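Box 3.1 A note on notation
Throughout this textbook, protein chains are presented in two layers. The first layer is the amino acid sequence; the second is a token string describing backbone geometry. Keep the layers aligned when reading.
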Amino acid sequence: HRKKVPLSRYNNYSEYFNNCCYNFPTESMSELAKVLSSILILFLVGIIVKRISKLNLCILCQSVFITWIGGLILYYNNLFNSREILALMIGGSIVGIYYFLESKLENHHLKIFLFPLYLSMLSLGFLILGGKIEKPEIFILLIVWLIFILIYSLRKRWLQAAFKSLLECCRNW
């Protein structure tokens, strides 16, 4: 039985990973290899959990989400060094949320709000990674939301063709 050591007592991600994973050979692993291993292990565990629990959740989405949350915690504790890998995983989660919502929205007219929602989630991902959102970015997001609210509210009038083309933008590529 191993003694647990606080996260802050480690010098780097490899030391932390070794202590948690019982001497898994991480010294020679790149940050990407560690992330790929984490996603793989979580994916395999997820398959077992899904089978036992009958939960209808996306195992890949869960594996990536848990990995980037863990990576983010490690990053802010200076135990993980790759913001690029975190950005890729966060971006993948954002796109996954977008497509999940698109598939679940029964009122197809509400799908018009997926684009401003995507931009908002992208901005949130930027904030999570330590970026700063200032007045110009907030202004752009507000304008986009207002434009799409206006288009939605006028959809039955003269903007019907524009509304229809916005809804079909991703369907016909």
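The first helix runs from residue 13 to 20. The mean pLDDT is 84.
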